[in-house]
Specification:
This protein has a 3-stranded antiparallel β-sheet with strand order 1-2-3, with no helix packed on it. It contains 2 helices and 3 strands, in the order βββαα. The radius of gyration is 23 Å and the shape is elongated. A hairpin with a 5-residue loop joins strand 1 and strand 2 (10-14). The chain has helices at 47-50, 53-78; strands at 2-4, 10-14, 20-25.
Length: 79
């Protein structure tokens, strides 16, 4: 569920499937209010289980690749 409000542009509300629930273009409408029936209950995702672990594993993996790259360059220069 996402509701994006902009000052001068297109505001919209979408559900978790990506279906547009409501949208409003600032430049084509005189109505200042956008109404949308948004769901109040979410869906189950993996995030509550794994949390930020995936992001930290990506950072750790990037660090390992940097260290291996530097070691490989040093090893090639010494030969």
């Amino acid at each position: 569920m996402l509701v994006a409000h902009v000052h001068n542009g297109i505001s919209f509300a979408v559900d978790y499937h990506g279906n547009v629930l409501a949208s409003k273009d600032y430049f084509t409408t005189s109505n200042e209010i956008m109404y949308a029936d948004v769901p109040t209950k979410g869906t189950k995702t993996l995030y509550p289980i794994i949390g930020d672990a995936f992001g930290w594993l990506c950072v750790l993996g990037f660090g390992v690749f940097v260290v291996l790259s530097i070691k490989g360059r040093v090893h090639k220069q010494s030969n």
